[in-house]
């Protein structure tokens, strides 16, 4: 609430007066801190103060603060708090708040309660320290608890929480000061107006964030559970798998020492999720590394003095040259270079096969084209030529990095291992990547969490967890409530789900999007189809009338060559774009644009999909595989949207195909 300077002073005086009358024998630090917090309750905040505060009893928080930024349990003290004492106090706080729910039945998980120790401020030298299992906040930094950019609860949600906290927190006095300028007859009106304003603002600016404080009871159960071995979370798009991982990482970080790792195959995702994690858990954010697998490997190999030369362009050239040598023999079977590239990348190298014998007998999961021994010999020759071409240029590819990392890790494990590793979008990782992460995590409770959805695999090939020797029996969780997509979007995405059979990562039947519970009504999907010449007008018309700001919209395509076309088109129309690989989740006015491989795991208010039909000409044998893969990619593209999807299909066959 915006108050004049004069009103602010009056509120502060009123706060001090109220505090002195309620708690006459307070020490000066709690008096100052609570006075400052109380003065803020004229906005959208509620303060609960331990009734026996003057006795300085040690095993309960001194106060609770509830505001749009969440629920805070506070210890206010001049002294150093022993770790064990802090744990006892905060555990008490979490237990007391455990019963709080919102209007939709979501609960407040232990991992949502902020643990704060407020100490004396000594001005410039002291700042908020956020490295332990709690925040250490000097009194001069109390504004940190009210930062606008961290707000994620509406006024109504704050009121609902505060009402329940009032009932649950016996032994705490609820203190509040009135806004000085609100006369009784206008107070109700003022409230209604600011309520509406607050709700609209919250819905528009940060539509996705109430998960910072509220989880579905099933999500919370997974956050709170201990697993005595590797565990797995699956569930269709938008069911909050990543949200659960972030809460779990906060809980595990608070209860452990040493680093934790969040990793994935997707290059741009860790940065986006790191930003979410900083909002959720500033106190442990520095202990959790968010790195995509190859960035982790590069750092690791460098630390061991093993620099690797990886260049995407060089790798592509090496493969193209190898293809030139072997295409005459393989083209008959399947003309697309992409198909054979996937065979080498995802089957031979992705499974870590090092001899022809191994290749002969290895499962080729997800690959529909049957290969007999003679065919496999041809593929193996292609692989060997490719390896030779890489070696000629002194290059490694991304699979080599995994293999080198694995060798290095076997030679000498990390000096300080990870307390926990979470692997997101696991369905697209290679088998060798999975094995490496298994080795990195080591054995022990809660060490490895695999998160993914077989229905959202956007790369060819596949594996089962049993192939990697990772046992998750009894430690598999499935989420089934979709929180992201409004019903109109969800129904459209379900319609795309042509292959309603999906393999779970364990090989059993998976849960598909068609089976999820939708909780958000509304949403809209529009389709357009036409020849390439009409695409610019159709797309630009749609962009001119988007129901969401362009900064919260993504344009998604399925091939790099399509990206080039769309980028050019938008550039010529003067529309500013940001490539998805550079997207960090930070607010930005530009239209995000990229292939589905870069869009996975992300979400936007609106999505424009441009699909160029006729670009692929797979052989009939590979067509089924390609269709299944494309269906999964479509599903990923559509489910990135919360409110709105525009689906543009360019029907003309395009010139120039891969291969
Ligand atoms: N408990 C919750 N309360 C409110 N919103 C939630 C909750 N859980 C998830 N969401 C919303 O749903 C969105 C999707 O969550 P998340 O990204 O974790 O899903 P996912 O299962 O990892 O999705 P995908 O597999 O499609 O990448 C979140 O950004 C969040 O806005």
UniProtKB/TrEMBL annotation:
Q: Does the keyword Ribonucleoprotein apply?
A: no
The cross-references to SUPFAM superfamilies, in alphabetical order and at most eight, read:
P-loop containing nucleoside triphosphate hydrolases
Its domain of life?
Bacteria
- Asked if Cytoplasm is a keyword of the record, the answer is no
Q: What is its EC number?
A: 5.6.2.4
Q: What is the lineage of its organism?
A: Bacteria, Bacillati, Actinomycetota, Actinomycetes, Pseudonocardiales
Which key words tag this protein in UniProt? Answer: ATP-binding, Helicase, Hydrolase, Isomerase, Nucleotide-binding
- The protein in question is named DNA 3'-5' helicase
Give the InterPro entries listed for this entry. DExx_box_DNA_helicase_dom_sf, DNA_helicase_UvrD-like_C, DNA_helicase_UvrD/REP, P-loop_NTPase, UvrD-like_ATP-bd
What family does the Swiss-Prot or TrEMBL record give for this protein?
Belongs to the helicase family. UvrD subfamily.
The UniProt entry, under PROSITE patterns, shows: UVRD_HELICASE_ATP_BIND
An example Pfam family from this entry, by short name, is UvrD-helicase
Q: Which reaction does it catalyse?
A: ATP + H2O = ADP + phosphate + H(+); Couples ATP hydrolysis with the unwinding of duplex DNA by translocating in the 3'-5' direction
């Amino acid at each position: 609430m915006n108050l004049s300077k004069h009103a602010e002073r009056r509120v502060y005086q009123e706060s001090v007066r109220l505090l002195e009358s309620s708690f006459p024998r307070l020490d000066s630090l709690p008096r100052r801190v609570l006075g400052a917090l109380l003065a803020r309750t004229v906005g959208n905040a509620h303060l609960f103060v331990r009734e026996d505060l003057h006795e300085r009893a040690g095993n309960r928080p001194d106060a609770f603060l509830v505001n749009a930024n969440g629920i805070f349990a506070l210890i206010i003290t001049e002294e150093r708090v022993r770790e064990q004492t802090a744990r006892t106090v905060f555990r008490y706080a979490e237990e007391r708040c455990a019963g709080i729910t919102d209007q939709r039945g979501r609960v407040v998980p232990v991992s949502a309660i902020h643990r704060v120790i407020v100490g004396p401020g000594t001005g410039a030298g002291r700042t908020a320290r956020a490295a332990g299992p709690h925040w250490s906040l000097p009194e001069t930094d109390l504004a940190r608890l009210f930062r606008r950019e961290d707000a994620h609860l509406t006024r109504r949600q704050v009121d609902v929480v505060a009402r329940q906290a009032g009932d649950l927190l016996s032994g705490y006095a609820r203190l509040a000061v009135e806004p000085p300028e609100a006369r009784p007859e206008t107070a109700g009106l003022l409230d209604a107006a600011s309520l509406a304003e607050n709700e609209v603002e919250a819905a528009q600016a940060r539509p996705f964030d109430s998960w910072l404080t509220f989880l579905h009871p099933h999500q919370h159960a997974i956050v709170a559970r201990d697993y005595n071995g590797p565990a797995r979370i699956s569930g269709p798009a938008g069911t909050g798998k990543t949200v659960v991982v972030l809460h779990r990482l906060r809980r595990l970080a608070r209860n452990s020492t040493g680093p934790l790792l969040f990793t994935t195959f997707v290059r741009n995702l860790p940065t986006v999720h790191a930003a979410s994690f900083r909002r959720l858990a500033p106190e442990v954010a520095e202990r959790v590394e968010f790195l995509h697998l190859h960035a982790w490997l590069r750092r690791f190999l460098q630390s061991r003095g093993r620099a690797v030369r990886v260049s995407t362009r060089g790798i592509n050239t090496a493969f193209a040259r190898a293809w030139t040598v072997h295409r005459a023999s393989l083209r008959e079977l399947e003309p697309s270079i992409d198909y054979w590239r996937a065979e080498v990348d995802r089957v031979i190298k992705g499974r870590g096969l090092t001899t022809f014998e191994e290749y002969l007998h290895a499962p080729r999961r997800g690959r529909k084209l049957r290969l007999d021994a003679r065919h496999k010999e041809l593929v193996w020759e292609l692989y060997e030529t490719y390896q030779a071409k890489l070696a000629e240029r002194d290059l490694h590819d991304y699979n080599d990095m995994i293999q080198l990392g694995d060798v290095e890790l076997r030679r000498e494990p990390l000096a300080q291992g990870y307390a926990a590793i979470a692997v997101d979008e696991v369905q697209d990782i290679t088998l060798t990547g999975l094995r490496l992460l298994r080795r990195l995590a080591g054995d022990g409770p809660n060490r490895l969490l695999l998160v993914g959805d077989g229905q959202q695999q956007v790369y060819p090939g596949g594996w089962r967890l049993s192939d990697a020797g990772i046992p998750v029996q009894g430690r598999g969780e499935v989420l089934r409530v979709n929180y992201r997509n409004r019903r109109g979007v969800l129904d459209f995405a379900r319609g795309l789900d042509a292959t309603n059979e999906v393999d779970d990562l364990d090989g059993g039947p998976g849960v598909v999007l068609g089976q999820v519970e939708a909780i958000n009504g509304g949403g809209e999907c529009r389709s357009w189809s036409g020849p390439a010449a009409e695409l610019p007008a159709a797309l630009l018309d749609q962009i001119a009338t988007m129901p969401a700001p362009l900064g919260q919209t993504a344009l998604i395509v399925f091939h790099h060559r399509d990206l080039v076309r769309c980028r050019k088109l938008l550039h010529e129309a003067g529309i500013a774009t940001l490539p998805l690989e550079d997207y960090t989740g930070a607010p930005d006015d530009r239209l995000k644009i990229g292939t589905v491989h870069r869009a996975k795991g992300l979400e936007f208010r609106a999505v424009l999909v441009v699909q160029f039909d006729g670009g692929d000409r797979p052989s009939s044998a590979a067509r089924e595989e390609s269709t299944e893969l494309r269906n999964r990619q479509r599903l990923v593209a559509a489910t990135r949207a919360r409110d709105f999807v525009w689906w543009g299909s360019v029907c003309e066959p395009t010139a120039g195909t891969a291969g």
